[in-house]
Amino acid sequence: MVVSLKEFGSATEIVKAVDHEIIETKNTLNGYLRRLEDIRALAEKSKKIREIVFKFAGKKAIAESAEVSISGMSLNLDAKVIHELAALEEVVGSQQEKFTALQRVREGLKWADQIGETEGVKFLVLEKNGVPEKILLRFVSE
């Protein structure tokens, strides 16, 4: 998880940053969804072919992968399309969660349109994985 603190000069700047992040996340998500659709179709074909071949060979399907863990990271030594599908599904789920969270934040920032002049106010935004979670108003004197 990446946590950061960003400073903005106005609430409007926060809204623009969230809108930009929504667009970027949506574009990324759409790209992964297209890729997922292609991989899902390929995985189904692969599974069907493997089942047919093993059936005619009179053998049971062998283990799907040889996976090892190195320093807490998994390494698949014989990755198949089904493994890529699982990885993409995880990425898509994560992107969908981020997109939904950003939309909730954007909805919650409607008050920002009501704020007028904010001279002398700094907006500090605590973000987790690119999603604002807390806004601190800091009043400064020049």
In total, how many beta strands?
A: 5
Count of runs of 4 or more consecutive helical residues: 2
Q: Strand pairing plus helix content: what structural class? A: alpha+beta
Gap from first CA to last CA: 35 Å
Shape: elongated
Q: Which radius of gyration do the C-alpha atoms yield?
A: 23 Å
Main β-sheet, spatial strand arrangement: 1-4-5
Q: Kindly state the mean pLDDT as a whole number? A: 88
What are the low-pLDDT stretches, counting only 5+ consecutive residues below 50?
none
Question: Can you tell me about this structure?
Answer:
The chain has a domain at 16-114. It is elongated. The chain starts with a strand and ends with a strand. Strands 1-4-5 form a 3-stranded antiparallel sheet. A two-stranded antiparallel ribbon has the order 2-3. The protein has helices at residues 11-57, 81-108, and strands at residues 3-8, 67-70, 73-76, 121-128, 131-139. The protein is an alpha+beta fold. It has 2 helices and 5 strands, in the order βαββαββ.
Quick structural overview:
The chain is of the alpha+beta class and 142 residues long.
Helix and strand layout, with pairings?
Blueprint: E1 3-8, H1 11-57, E2 67-70, E3 73-76, H2 81-108, E4 121-128, E5 131-139
Antiparallel strand pairs: 1-4, 2-3, 4-5
